[in-house]
Amino acid sequence: MSQVPGEVQEVRDAFGARLRELRQQASLTGRALAERTGLHFTKVSRVEHGRQTLTDAELRAWCVACGAADQAQDLIAMARTIDSLYREWRRMTRAGLRGLQETVTRRYRHVRLLRIYERTVIPGLLQIPGYSDASMAQWVALMGLPDDAESATATRLASQQVLHSGLRRFVFVLEEQALRTRFGDPGVMVDQLDHLLSVLSLPRVSLGIVPAMAERTFVSQVPFWVWDDDKVTLETISAEVEITRPDEVSLYAAAFDLIRQSAVYGGQARGLITAIRDEFQRLRGGDA
Length: 288
Hints:
Blueprint: H1 6-25, H2 30-37, H3 41-48, H4 56-65, H5 72-83, E1 86-88, H6 89-92, H7 97-110, E2 113-118, H8 129-143, H9 149-159, E3 169-175, H10 176-180, H11 186-199, E4 205-210, E5 224-227, E6 231-235, E7 239-243, H12 246-260, H13 266-284
Parallel strand pairs: 2-3, 3-4
Antiparallel strand pairs: 1-7, 2-5, 5-6, 6-7
Helix pairs in contact: 2-3, 4-5, 7-9, 8-9, 11-13
């Protein structure tokens, strides 16, 4: 059996806990529920602990047995979402990173409002070639992928045209650490941060930076992207997680708005980016 990434297993655990709650609210033991549904009692236990899934029919039977038939459809929708919750990176990148970048580019063309929160890296839409090449190289090494970083970077840079055309809006919120995480030599970082300074003037782009010492209204442990009001994507080391349930998407959108409140914009953002840029310039060994 293939190992389920930790983030997905947590969702399965929560789903199992909800089913256990239904059983307990109906004052049923695991064996009593098994008798009413035709499931083996050991399967009831595995499901409640997130170790096994149920078919649509089994979920309906579970809800009926617990006197919660009205919840069956919501639970079936949730179970289907969990089943397709993540896309394994190895499968997605089997032909190389360029194909993955082409997939992302197609997504950009259809979005109208993209909200991006990043903690430790500058997102691809804002990267320069040297930064992107160094970023791609680490994934090639870790995943044992075909080394097509150069063509993948070319595809990524071409996708940045969406920042300049159409009716799309892009709202970026980056933690200060994202400006400091080094890809390439100090010269690459100086050029990358110079590019970020130029992004501040783009009419379709909002760029906020959360200072490391800022007072926080909300702290997210993971970066996330909100695509219109349709879905949220998260990236882990092993997979991309896609969230489509409307209530969960709304939750991430609300979290994004809270994080934005701690960010600085305009002249303050420019000052913070410039200060970090000058630190890299000193490491480079030249004048600012």
